[in-house]
Design goal:
Order of helices and strands: HEHHEHEEHEEEHEEEHEEEHHEHE
Number of strands: 15
Oligomer: single chain
Helix content: 40-55%
Structural class: alpha/beta
């Protein structure tokens, strides 16, 4: 990067993507190592501000599972799990909302504002943004188990008016994944699920999930340019397994609901968001419904 010609080449490589995506909405799920490492968090904030300055409308949905677990432990609130799923009772939900919609949300807002952006923190409870229903876990024997105040939602459960108003006014929405239940109760929503539903409701150009992995791996190599049908084949073959399955399913749902491109990228790489969006090679896995003959892998 000390070579001026190399720096100019990188800027010129970004130019067609800046032109192509200007005016588009990109929904980014922020979490994992990128959230816990101060240097990565600061780099992410700069990335988001740059996206806005070149005419893109970024929308951020964030997680916070490890921070919630730490706070529950500090407050000596016991946590129950069923088949690996956390049961969120009323006491736990108070902590979830405090950590997600309070501490984490406002810290992300402060980071982005410190870099010159105009971020506004909200949750799914604000402005009728997200309504959800309690999620139940169906076990292999057919028994359904309540997970307490854990919710599930779809594109139709998102009212995008508030997000669009913030976008149109030059603000960057930072969304905590908490929704309103049927009785007005707070429900904890998986951040990937929330990001997928928000992207679908907004008909976003892109959905980007920051993870702690390089993306979908095939033979220890990051795969890209995958179609939803290919994803199902990889799941059936066991190539995609474990925690990657719900992430790729969030991507394929978004594609089915009209999102043009979805990306799973490694948030442990500084400026991974910019590298994926503005470079020819990208740094993660692209999943898309179709590829035209003139489109590159991470377009």
């Amino acid at each position: 990067m000390d070579n001026p010609a190399r720096r100019a080449t990188i800027l010129l490589e970004a130019l067609p993507y800046i032109r192509r995506f200007s005016g588009s909405t990109i929904v980014v799920k922020f979490g994992g190592a990128a959230m816990k490492d101060p240097a990565l968090s600061a780099a992410f904030a700069r990335d988001i501000v740059l996206l806005q300055f070149v005419g893109i409308k970024p929308v951020v949905v964030h997680g916070g599972g490890p921070q919630i677990s730490k706070m529950l432990e500090e407050l000596h609130i016991p946590t129950q799990f069923v088949d690996g799923h956390r049961i969120t009772d009323a006491a736990s939900m108070d902590v979830v909302e405090m950590v997600l919609a309070g501490k984490i949300n406002k810290s992300i807002v402060a980071l982005i504002n410190a870099e010159g952006g105009k971020a506004v923190g909200i949750s799914g409870k604000d402005g009728h943004l997200a309504r959800a229903v309690p999620h139940t876990l169906q076990r292999t024997d057919g028994e359904e188990i309540s997970l307490g105040q854990v919710g599930t939602l779809t594109r139709d459960d998102i009212n995008p008016a508030l997000i669009r108003n913030l976008d149109d006014s030059g603000y960057i929405p930072i969304i905590a994944p908490v929704a309103v239940g049927p009785q007005g109760e707070s429900l904890n929503i998986n951040a990937d699920t929330m990001a997928s539903a928000v992207a679908s409701a907004l008909q976003a150009r892109k959905l980007v999930l920051l993870t702690d992995t390089p993306g979908v791996l095939i033979d220890n190599q990051t795969a890209t340019g995958l179609a939803p049908a290919h994803i199902q084949e990889l799941i059936a073959a066991g190539t995609i397994s474990g925690g990657m399955i719900p992430k790729v399913e969030c991507c394929t749902r978004a594609i089915a609901n009209g999102v043009k491109r979805t990306h799973i990228i490694d948030g442990r790489i500084e400026h991974a968001l910019l590298l994926e969006i503005f470079t020819d090679s990208g740094v993660g896995t692209l999943i898309s419904g179709e590829f035209g003959p003139e489109e590159k892998a991470n377009d």
